[in-house]
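I'll show a record.
***
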Amino acid sequence: MSQKIIPKKLLLLHGPNLNLLGTREPEVYGRMTLEEVNQAAVDYAHRHHAELRAEQSNHEGALIDIIHVARNWADGIVLNAGAYTHTSVALRDAISAVKLPVVEIHLSNIHAREEFRHKSLIAPVCVGQICGFGWRGYLLAIEALLGHLGVSD
């Protein structure tokens, strides 16, 4: 008798200005739109026996609310907090409070950019950070999160 695979449920959460992907500084953030990134992530997750739900907000409180709700259904979170990475203690506290594994992701290499982008307030409460690989970083983050959750092909 074969063992039934129970798909993991993942939240992909995008922070401020990521709704402008494809048009906002494409030399830094790439030319793929948010919808294209989300579809690539959903397809990748599906191929790896996971369900992925994507959300985006430009508002700190809305991101926190989404994280709070995720504790009731998600097994883990892939988070691109955008500029809130460097400023939001509230977002950091929400991640810590829900006790879900979170992988931090950034399209650009934040450590090779302006000094104020080098410090992540959320990194200490995340299981890891992926940056600098453009839209493919989301796929790497999903793979890393699934590995952390004990899912392997």
Remarks:
- The chain has a mean pLDDT of 94.
- The first helix runs from residue 26 to 29.
